[in-house]
Design a protein that fits this description.
Chains A, B: GO terms for molecular function: DNA binding. 2 copies of one chain form a homodimer. By secondary structure, the first copy, chain A, is of the alpha/beta class. Helix content of chain A is 41%, strand content 19%. In chain A, the strands form 2 sheets. Chain A has a 6-stranded parallel sheet, with helices on one face. A 6-stranded mixed sheet of chain A has the order 7-6-8-9-10-12, with helices on both faces. Chain A is elongated, with a radius of gyration of 25 Å.
Chain lengths: 309, 309
């Protein structure tokens, strides 16, 4: 393993100088910086991060905190995590995963958080930068533009001839759920169509039961808050003998796995996880550089499947 | 923040003594150990891990390396990751996520790896402990007992009256895929029943197409290598007008979330991710303590759904 001493010898400078080039290059002449950097490249020297951390008080490590219970962990977290790992790597940071509410500051420079609810906001006011995946007032947040997503879905159904359009939403008092319902409501109002919105727990069975009870007529469209709900609605529709894509049109939300597993495949509002992850990291790095940042909403994409025209 | 100096003052000892209690307690009297530990508890002192790392050469950090491409990432990796995070935390270790093939030793004491294939085995012979989720000769491996899993599935169908039983497997030259097929083959041989095994890519459409072509008669059972394949087979069976659970019986493999999304729900061989994760961590900690360990196969569980009697 190449040591700092090896670099110093190769560059014909003292160890102190090498260290200074790494931590305070502004104190060293350009020529010496170049010599040292050249030696580092040639020798393949990797700084002992523990040593560097003590010198800079920067750990180059970010904690990604999953606040969800294991039963609520959405399968797409694996994708989000990979995107975050890749994005942080480009900035020279490692990603540590945490599954607790302690927000222990040991060895981390900042936090990325998923699954935060209103009740977590206060604990997340920390002396280091925090960016959440989601939307909570008071925290730097990155999320899909939920209202735009369901608005797109609703408008798509209207444009394809559906006038009786239901909304299956989530019985959760959180901004993402409220915004998804808002997108539907405002679009229906804009087109002068009657609103029929329901709130359910996020599982297929609840949606199947509801649609079974409602027994919608041909020509009905359904906008849902999640692909899980859409899947449940799809099952009930099939059981009622309604055919896709013209007698009934269903649009989900998420677009990570479930939409491709159903038969017919679901038209859905796809959350752009890669863009979300990159934006979270960008905002975090900016904060670590001392910049002021603000929350970002990313426009999702409507992915057409076979559950609509 | 509480410093080592504060602990020393509270315990009426030198800083050197406090440090020794933390790293070489065997060199310090029991009475002084107790005084120092009491002071640590009272003050809530947390060791600066970077400092401790340089002293012990142990980083108390494990890297979990996902070798899969993002398109192949199984959604249940999120569950595995959470289980690993929780298990490592009990041992006082943090979990770093990596998505590259460099196996950089910087700041990690050991590796947990997922998605390793035969071609990765050589690169995984590292100077630190490695445990993989999977089964590769030459590496300490933890996996579901794949052969036992499909054997249980096959025997279940036989015991419920199915004699014509097909196997839908994976066209992958890896131990897990070969072992799942072996479990079916050996059980059929044991019962004197004819083997009919197919190998497909791991997606629902391939299974749907195959079963559509085969057009099995009522009384046929299907054992599959994954829930994805089972889902595809289930769709084709429904399209052929076969009814569950008696005209056709289908059993999948994985049991993380797909089995619950299908209609009817799938009977499946469930991988015990929690036990797998805990076992991986246990073997890793043992190796870090200098013990010799061996690979472990964990018996999966047959979870009965509505796709079989």
């Amino acid at each position: 393993m190449v040591s700092l001493n090896d670099v110093a010898k190769t560059a014909h400078v003292s160890k102190m100088t090498v260290s200074r080039v790494l931590t305070h290059p502004e104190l060293v002449s350009l020529e010496i910086q170049k010599d040292v950097q050249q030696a580092i490249l040639e020798l393949g020297y990797v700084q002992n991060r523990a040593g560097r951390a003590l010198a800079n008080k920067r750990h180059y490590n970010i904690a990604f905190v999953l606040l969800d219970d294991i039963a609520e962990i959405e399968p797409y977290y694996a994708h989000l995590l990979i995107h975050l790992t890749d994005a942080l790597r480009h900035h020279g940071y490692t990603l540590e995963v945490r599954h607790d509410r302690e927000f222990d500051l040991t060895n981390v420079d900042a936090f990325l958080v998923s699954g935060a609810r209103r009740t977590d906001v206060e604990a997340l006011h920390l002396p280091v930068p925090v960016v959440i995946y989601g939307m909570e007032p008071g925290l730097i947040s990155v999320d899909s533009d939920n209202a735009v997503g369901t608005a797109m879905a609703t408008e798509y159904l209207i444009n394809h001839g559906f006038e009786h359009i239901l909304y299956l939403g989530l019985a959760i008092n959180e901004p993402f759920a409220l915004n998804r319902e808002t997108g539907y409501r405002q679009t229906m109002l804009r087109y002068g169509l009657p609103i029929e919105a329901y709130e359910l727990p996020n599982n297929e069975a609840a949606a199947t039961e509801l649609i079974g009870l409602i027994a919608p007529n041909p020509g009905t469209g359904i906008v849902t808050a999640t692909d899980r709900l859409a899947l449940g609605a799809l099952r009930a529709s099939q059981a009622l003998g309604l055919t896709f894509p013209n007698e009934i049109g269903i649009i989900g939300f998420d677009g990570i796995y479930i939409h491709k597993l159903s038969s017919p495949t679901l038209t859905t509002v796809q959350q752009p996880l890669g863009v979300i992850a990159n934006t979270m990291v960008k905002l975090l790095m900016a904060q670590l550089n001392g910049e002021t940042v603000s929350s970002k909403l990313i426009t999702p994409t409507l992915v057409i499947g076979n559950s609509t025209p």
